[in-house]
Amino acid sequence: MKKVIIWFTIILLLALSACARTDPSGKTGGTLPVITFHLREEPSEKKTGRPEAKPDIIEGEALSEEEVLRLKEFLNWNADRIPCMFLTCSYETPEEIDFDLVFYNGTVSGAIMEPVPLQEREEVARILGMETVLERNLPPQKRPRAKVEALIRQYTGLPEETVGKIVLSYPYVAEYDAYYTFFDDCEKILAKVKSAVWADETHTLAQVVWSDRARDREGIAMMKKTEDGWQFVSNWIGR
Known about the structure:
Blueprint: H1 2-20, E1 34-35, E2 40-41, H2 65-74, H3 81-84, H4 99-102, H5 118-127, H6 132-135, E3 140-144, H7 145-156, H8 160-163, E4 172-173, E5 178-182, E6 191-198, E7 205-212, E8 217-226, E9 229-237
Antiparallel strand pairs: 1-2, 3-5, 4-5, 6-7, 7-8, 8-9
């Protein structure tokens, strides 16, 4: 009887451990956890344009080897974390992107990261009522709003007026016009391009079938070619 109880306890602990590693949304290929201050918390419930039905695979002209190589470099996590983070949520239009996820750990990117002097760190912690982060020596992550908006325009093509209405859920400090968190954390997304075909005759829109070996999921994105890279039009993540 004691052996049965012991085995039952072990199984229960393993089950609870597995649940702890599941996406907070409870969905396969769902959203990443959002950091509000310095702890992992459940992402806020928000309506998104998550496509329920899998898009049809287009039988178009395949991108050339050189074009696919450039696309892979664009989505390379080790080169820049911002672009590939646009594959962390599902959406039917750029307006429906969950930008909290896009900038979850994008602060490591040189495109947005800024050093936070000690005086600024102390002032921000005081304003947010988070003085304990100083005692715990938690590293600050700063997301300047101007850079956030510039990156959204760059990678979505949304007009300035629309982007100006986007507000991240991270704590915002008006004195520095930036969003802050205090936590050294990241969620890898290792996007692999499985196939890519042009969806139009002008070679502007491409359907990209991708997989993420870090989180064992796959998806289908519609992306627009620009002079200096790509923009994200839609994305579907398989369950």
